[in-house]
Amino acid sequence: MSVKQVSVFLENKPGTLNKLTKVLADHDINIRALSLADTSEFGIVRMLVGDVFKTTNVLNEANFVAIFTPVLVYTISDEAGSLDQLLQKFTEENVNIEYMYAFAGKKKAYMIFKVSDPKASEIKLIARGLRSLTQEELDEV
Amino acid sequence: MERYFQEEIERAPLEKIREWQNEKFLRQVKHVWDNVGYYRNKMQEAGVSLDDIKSIDDIGKLPFLTKADLKAAYPYGLLAVPLKDCVRIQSTSGTTGKRVVAFYTQEDIDMWEECTARAIVAAGGTNEDVVQVSYGYGLFTGGPGLDGGSHKVGCLTIPTSSGNTERQIMFIMDLSATILCCTPSYAAYLGETMKEMGYGPDDIPLKAGIFGAEAWSEEMRRDIEKVLGIKAFDIYGLTEISGPGVSFECNEQRGMHINEDHFYAEVIDPDTGEVLPEGAQGELVFTSLDKKAFPLLRYRTRDICTLTREKCSCGRTHIRMTKPRGRSDDMLIVRGVNVFPSQIETVLLNNGYAANYQIIVGRVNNTDTLDVHVEMTADMFTDNVGEIQARKKVLEDGMRSMLGIKAKVTLVAPKSITRSEGKAVRVIDNRKI
Predict the structure, then answer these.
(1) Kindly report the CA angle at B341 between B118 and B274, in degrees rounded to 5?
(2) pLDDT tier at A62 (50, 70, 90 boundaries)?
(3) Which of A34, A71, B176, B361 lies in the 20 to 30 Å Cα band around B145?
(4) Within a domain: A123
(5) Burial classification of residue A129, based on how many CB atoms lie within 10 Å of its CB (0-12 exposed, 13-18 middle, 19 or more buried)
(6) CATH of the domain at A109
(7) Distances in Å between the alpha carbon of B18 and those of B22, B47, B56, B318?
(8) pLDDT in tens, B78-107
(9) Strand order across the B263-268 sheet
(10) Per-residue pLDDT for B399 more than 50?
(11) In the prediction, which pLDDT does B95 show?
């Protein structure tokens, strides 16, 4: 199952990211994972949070543009070689990764992928024995 | 069948209009001469006395008034009646930086409201209609002006004022509003929001909209008409002369009829002040023919347009003005090229974006720079960096072909462009020349 990532447009000027984190803090929203894509002219914040609907609502109210993007999250063991094993299966199934980021837990690491055609990619990877996390499972991490 | 609020006036033969204008003009010049020292001094400086003004054909002898005069005479210098006779002030939102305070007697307000009533009837309004006034109320003339006109027509008036889009939509839907009055950019925003909420043009009870107080293009008109399922009418006015309703569109949607029984219009060459013949493009100048408290003579509006007496199929005989192409002081000269904000707006709308933009002109190493800030919207945003850059490039290419010079597009946060009482600040010129 893909999970909903919240993607937010950021104007390129000092303090914008902090304005975003302030809104989240004021609404008691915990960021589980975050990645910042930047160009010379604007940025996109991509993040996993507990309540995606609440998050996009409060962000839209605070004049941010926030949308959902489906991403696949896979658990791997936190040791050398495990990402390589995971990605071999992506390669074998010809799954195209647009971007990825990661966070590590106590024993496991969590890889977040934005892939082209997420539905079809996910099915191909299931056939390889890879099951992505659901939102509920992610909340338990 | 075409309806009129004051048919005898709106369809009066030209000779009759001339007769009214002449009579009111002579009375008004005397009123100003007797009561407005500031203007009497200007006339004397120009070597003109009351005796030199024998008919409206002598209007060219009178000096112009400009925004600078309003500033110099602030606040009471152009007031022509005792304060005890005034019942209201309105004030401009300062599109061009300086605040103007205009005074009204009760008669002045009645006259103004009759003008907006004519506009509402021209847009198809009757006492059966429900008019939602989503212009700001308060110092801004938009709300009070249309509100008063709506009362005069006998419409049920919903004074929502501006803002709180959800509540606006709730009233439109729950009370079946049939005529919407607001700025065109707000109408477009309401339309987009209603579309997102799943309302199609056939679900929306509105049939007409009266939109003004800022420049808008024909493309924007078509977009608003389509999304709301209405006919959109332009209305023009300025606080200095009274407020919205100085002129208004009829069903023809080909220029706005000026309420000539109250406002005398001339078009001049903005550089020389020379009066131009009918049909020539130039700066619009108004003389208030019967306003008592704040009677401006030959006030330069800085709006660039043309006038026509060509017969209109609606039956109204009053002269029509084209939609101002832009304020003469809105026109920018960038790298030697004339740039009007309305051109930038056209490019945005043609590409499916909302017209939320700001033009920033600067100068680096003696070369002008043209930056256009465009507010990001949920429609424009995607999670894909390359896609956003490609969309931005399409806008830049469009502007280049529209303006003939390169403009740099910068995407900014939603609602980050300064708004003043619902009007966006469109141009910032940082050039130090």
Answers:
(1) 70
(2) very high
(3) B176
(4) yes
(5) exposed
(6) 3.30.70.260
(7) 6, 26, 9, 11
(8) 999 999 999 999 997 544 445 789 999 999
(9) B263-268, B282-288, B299-305, B326-327
(10) yes
(11) 45
Domain containing residue B388:
332-429
**Cβ–Cβ of A98/B384 closer than 8 Å?**
yes
DSSP label at B275?
A: B
Note whether residue A17 is domain-resident.
yes
Number of structural domains, chain B?
A: 2
- Give percent of chain A above pLDDT 70: 100
Is there a contact between B5 and B268 (Cβ–Cβ < 8 Å)? no
Q: State how far the alpha carbon of B415 is from the alpha carbons of A137, B98, B147, in Å.
A: 37, 23, 27
pTM of the complete model: 0.67
Q: Which residues of B touch A60 (CB under 8 A)?
A: 378
Given pLDDT bands bounded at 50, 70 and 90, which one contains residue B208? very high
Please identify, among A17, A34, A69, the residue that sits at the C-terminal boundary of a domain: A69
Confidence of residue A94 (pLDDT cuts 50, 70, 90): very high
Q: Which of B376, B392, B410 is opposite residue A65, by nearest beta carbon?
A: B376
B385 and A65 within 8 Å at the Cβ level: the answer is: no
Task: Answer yes or no: is A77 within a domain.
Answer: yes
- From the CA of A83, how many Å to the nearest CA of chain B? 24
Query: Do B171 and B156 touch, CB atoms closer than 8 A?
Result: no
Q: Do B378 and A65 touch (CB under 8 A)?
A: yes
Question: In this structure, which amino acid lies at residue A137?
Answer: E
